[in-house]
Amino acid sequence: MTTAGAPRTGAAGRLLGPAWPAALLAGLLATGCAASGSAGASGTPSPPPSPSPSASATSPEELCTRIVAHWSREILDSTTYGDYQSMGLSNGQYEILRTVVGAARTAKKRQGAEAADELIDREAAEGCADRYRSGTPTEGPWQ
């Protein structure tokens, strides 16, 4: 018989009162449910998931286009360009950026912000395609 307010225990002395769901949850969180690399039905560890092809297959040309377009938009209304190394650009990518920003500033004055935005995408893609047409430039680590 149990006393009112006293916790009950079941077989093997386990706590059965209102605290048992919290204890169970804490135990599950501490051990991790279905963790990556856990044993499968056969008892052998399951392999970790492999990265998706799109996550690991970004070409140098595509990466160049993305970063040049990003920084072109960032500095379009600025009077300075900043340090190309702090932007993660090579010297060649920085030259593409300067060309793209110059053209985008002219387009923005004449045709508006939307035209400048479209020009940035187009010119960054064309400049990077030209740069990486023959593969990765090998003129030096800064190129």
Low-confidence stretches: 31-40
Biggest sheet details: none
Which range does the strand content fall in? under 5%
Mean pLDDT: 75
* Structure summary, number of beta strands: 0
Run of helices and strands: HHHHH
Taking the alpha carbons of the first and last residues, their distance comes to 82 Å
How would you classify the helix and strand content by structural class? Answer: mainly alpha
Helix content: 40-55%
**What's the alpha carbon Rg, rounded to whole Å?**
29 Å
Based on Cα principal axes, name the global outline: globular
Number of helices: 5
Structural features, described:
This protein is an all-alpha fold and 143 residues long. It has a domain of 75 residues. Helices cover 50% and strands 0% of the residues. It contains five helices and no strands. It starts with 19 loop residues before the first helix and ends in a 12-residue tail after the last helix. About 7% of the residues have low confidence.
